[in-house]
Design goal:
The chain has 572 residues and is of the alpha/beta class. The protein contains 24 helices and 16 strands. The strands form 5 sheets. The protein has a 7-stranded mixed β-sheet, sandwiched between helices. It has a 3-stranded antiparallel β-sheet with strand order 8-12-10. A hairpin with an 8-residue loop joins strand 6 and strand 7. The longest helix has 28 residues. The two termini are 49 Å apart.
């Protein structure tokens, strides 16, 4: 498909002129009864010059437009820029493509309508199958997938592959969608050798069975320790907090850096074992498999929150950390990865592929380090989507079941601990919301005579608060990009709400300026971008552009709002 993309890029002006000459309501008249309602969430794939994206946004839809041809995408952005001037919802443009849709998948959104207009014929049969699977996973229950099928060759160098309603029918059966509508049509541009068919596929319900599967593991699966719960809770946390960590999702599986799984595994057990001294298996005389003398025991002076993305370890701590990671990988592989399966042990849900590596004297916990230990594989991408979209329901169930398991263990029972202690031990981050480093940075800048502004109002700060842009109660995260200076009144007023769309856009310059003002040294920028590139959707590990971080922040705020239904706040 890349050669086709090159042609669309090189002849962008010509294609845009052709597309824009046609009225979208006429092009899409055949499936009018399925047109989305106002406020629908729409994904326009192969958005081209932005004609359809603009039309859909003008109907009140929230539109994400995917276009891989750079010049065509830029023309589309120019055309849809008029929406903001008219105070209408903007179109969100993405550089992505079928069948990968890597950036789209990282958004964690489910769509009411996915429009794939004049694209399908550019995909090979194998790519059509991969694309359909991914698109079906991006639909809300009741959501529609609209695909136009072009019949007829090209005479300008573009390539086309066979398409048919029959193949779409087969894909619908395989992926539990209903073929709700099909119609044959002529070419709107009057080309005699070109014919079109339009199909509408509907997802009748969430249908994957993954939520029931997760519930079974949590409630009914036998457990001699808390390992299974720990692994599931780790994956829920990563799915929610680190969409940028996925290394590959091109086949029907998700590949993560196994080191990231280990990092959150350690953070959980550090607080449970060293912080609260809580028994975690049925044998009170037996230590956990990863508690070894050359790893865990040499790091007892560190707290759970010291094992953070962007943290630097040197000397003996670096050596012990690498040993601990290896021990944890062995424990996870021999324990929950082996014993969490679908129906029979020869059908596991997870796998680990270890890599050989040489220990280093210094360790920076970043994506390269976390991936250096190998891969953690989730065999069913639908399971990953389930963890991502239903994490806010799965996490409390996991926590409650973990508390119940711990309360049964002999040593814990003998201590007659209050229920609150168990729940406190399972917090991902300390309740005090660690903002001290950013607070100290503001004070230091003020002492140096620099002016620090509230990111929300632009007022000069004297007394100040540090706000979590994404509310801590919904999305516990103390990364530097998420901690922003503001007035105390603004912080209290915002409370546990997200910044509204207009407020976030109006604050864009101040947020970017704050990030640059607070991160001037090489070490500060390294920490900032390491955290951001792993936590925010669509960023590469090499990204060092504050503006790109802001773009990704906007997508994340929108995704959290959609998934968790969090309220919005505007400066009063």
């Amino acid at each position: 498909m890349s050669s086709n993309i090159d042609i669309y890029h090189q002849v962008a002006e010509g294609f845009a002129s052709q597309y824009n000459a046609l009225k979208p309501e006429e092009v899409h008249q055949s499936w009018r009864s399925f047109w989305p309602a106002a406020d629908a969430l729409v994904l326009d794939i192969g958005a081209g010059s932005g004609r359809d994206a603009l039309w859909l946004a003008q109907q009140g839809c929230e539109v994400f437009a995917v276009e891989p041809a750079k010049a065509l995408r830029e023309l589309g952005q120019q055309q849809t820029a008029t929406l903001e001037a008219a105070q209408q919802k903007p179109v969100h443009w993405l550089d992505d493509r079928l069948p990968e849709l890597k950036t789209v998948l990282q958004l964690g959104l489910k769509f009411d309508l996915i429009l794939v207009s004049a694209v399908w014929m550019h995909l090979t049969p194998a790519e059509q199958e991969r694309s359909f699977r991914k698109l079906s996973n991006l639909l809300k229950a009741g959501g529609r997938l609209v695909i136009s099928l072009r019949h007829g060759d090209f005479n300008d160098g573009r390539t086309a592959y066979p398409v048919s309603i029959h193949s779409i029918e087969q894909l619908c059966v395989q992926h539990a969608l209903e073929l709700s509508f099909q119609q044959q049509g002529t070419d709107a541009m009057g080309r005699e050798n070109v014919q079109w068919q339009t199909v509408v596929c509907t997802l009748p319900d969430d249908g994957s069975g993954s939520l029931s599967q997760v519930r079974h593991i949590i409630l009914n699966s036998s457990k001699s320790s808390t390992y299974k719960l720990a692994l599931l809770r780790t994956l829920v946390r990563i799915a929610d907090a680190h969409p940028g960590a996925v290394l590959d999702s091109s086949s029907q599986q998700i590949i993560l850096p196994v080191g990231l799984v280990v990092l959150y595994w350690i953070r959980q057990f550090k607080r449970l074992l060293d912080g609260y001294n809580l028994q975690q298996n049925s044998d009170p005389a037996k230590r956990l498999g990863f508690q070894k003398a050359d790893g865990w025991d040499l790091l007892t002076h560190l707290a759970a929150d010291d094992f953070a993305i962007g943290a630097l370890f040197t000397g003996p701590d670096a050596k012990a950390l690498q040993k601990l990671f290896s021990h944890c990988i062995d424990t996870i592989q021999q324990g929950p990865v082996t014993f969490i399966y679908q129906k029979t042990p020869d059908n596991p849900l997870f796998a680990i592929e270890k890599k050989r590596r040489t220990a280093t004297d210094t360790v920076l916990i970043d994506k390269d380090f976390l991936a250096s230990f190998g891969h953690f594989i989730i065999h069913q991408d639908k399971l990953w989507q389930c963890l991502r979209h239903y994490g806010c329901w799965i996490e409390p169930l996991l926590t409650r079941q973990w508390v119940d398991e711990m309360a049964k263990y002999q040593l814990n029972k003998a201590r007659a601990l209050p229920l609150e202690t168990y729940y406190l031990s399972l917090q991902w981050l300390e309740q005090k919301r660690e903002t001290a480093a950013v607070r100290d940075k503001v004070m230091k800048l003020q002492q140096q005579g620099e002016q620090v502004l509230s990111v929300w109002s632009g007022s000069t700060l004297k007394q100040f608060d540090i706000d979590h842009c994404l509310p801590f109660s919904y999305w516990p995260n103390n990364d530097q990009w998420n901690l922003l200076p503001c007035t105390a009144n603004e912080n209290r007023s915002k409370s546990d709400r997200l910044p509204g769309r207009d407020l976030l856009q109006h604050s864009r310059g101040r947020i970017n300026n704050w990030w640059q003002q607070a991160n001037t040294t090489q070490a500060e920028q390294r920490r900032f971008f390491t955290e951001a590139n792993l936590s925010l959707p669509g960023l590469t590990t090499q990204n060092n552009d504050f503006e790109q971080v802001f773009e990704a922040l906007q997508f994340l705020v929108f995704g959290v709002k959609q998934r968790l239904q969090v309220g919005e706040w505007q400066v009063g």
